[in-house]
Amino acid sequence: MNIAFFGTSDIGIETLKSINEHFSVKAVITTKDKKGKRNKILIESPIKKQAIELGLNFFQPEKFDDNFLSQIKDCQMGILFSYGKIIPQNVIDAFKYGILNIHPSILPKYRGASPIISALLNGDLYTGISIIKLTKDLDAGDCLMQKIIEITPDDNNITLSNRISYLASQMIICAIEFYKDGLLKPKPQKGNISYTKKFNKNDALINFETDDACFAVRKVKAFAGYLDAFFYYNSKIYKILKASVCDLSATPATVVKVSKNSLIIACKNKSISIEQIKPEGKNAMSIEAFLAGHKFQCGQKIT
Q1: What domain of life (predicted)?
Q2: Does the annotation flag 107 for ligand binding?
């Protein structure tokens, strides 16, 4: 079976490696290199880097024209995982078995770009993986296979993405084989449809006056390794990398408790205990290391 893999972000790396071990990956399709800070360097996608490491042919098409179709003419199936661009119908139809789309949610819940972040931000107890037939409509294709995944209290965007990445790499091998042999029958998605949005920096801002502590901690978990939840203090950005909810209450956006190894800030409801932090322009550090060089007092306003 000759496969074309469509992907961009690092969540698809394990799937690309797994497919390459079991089948023949004839083409890896990823997005164009992005400009780095101050446009000085170009940043390659994680999937492009992996394709180079595996010695695979990769393509970064700006449009899906006849030239592109000639590059995938020997492929019987496409696999897509976090590619980031809409695939036109003529490309889907170019494959004998179409394109299978791996989506990190239990569809039809959380169609769209950010299902893992959305699940963590909403405090969901579980999420999952859906393998569907790719169609022109966003994440709306018939379902071939699903797996429910528990979200543990310690999970954040990094740990949950890593777990989904590994499980998807195992599921897709079964899906390819079973679908090729006619053992998997596509079924329409069932349930209430919901959509995610593409999050930006403003979504990751923690406002101690308006956010309750539970939601603030969910932001820390949801945006870990991506935007990273943050707050402003003395006009500088402080990213919170790990935190927990504390039952103490006080005036929102004030320091409730401070010691050599503890910094607790009041929110709209309850408080947040910061455990790991990254001050602007500095490396990540434990709260103990941070407090060794920064002085706070109880009742102090954090603005």
Answers
A1: Bacteria
A2: yes
The span from the CA of 49 to the CA of 106, in Å, is 29
Run means of pLDDT, 10 residues per run, the chain, 303 residues: 97 98 98 81 95 98 94 97 95 97 98 97 98 96 98 98 98 97 95 96 97 98 96 96 96 96 96 97 97 94 91
- Residue 144 token pair: 């071939």
The CATH number fitting domain 2-180, selected from 3.40.50.170, 3.40.50.620, 3.30.1490.20, 3.30.1130.10 = 3.40.50.170
105 labeled part of a ligand binding site: yes
- pLDDT, residue 5, reads 98
Q: Domains of the chain: which residue ranges?
A: 2-180, 201-293
- Closest Cα partner for 157 from 111, 104, 112? 104
pLDDT value of residue 35:
84
**Chain segment 42-71, per-residue pLDDT in tens:** 899 999 999 999 999 999 999 999 999 999
pLDDT at 39: 67
Helical packing angle, 13-22 and 157-180, nearest 10°? 30
Is 70 annotated as a binding-site member? no
Question: If one looks up domain 201-293 in CATH, what number appears?
Answer: 3.10.25.10
What are the two backbone dihedrals, phi and then psi, of residue 34, each rounded to the nearest 5 degrees? -100, 150
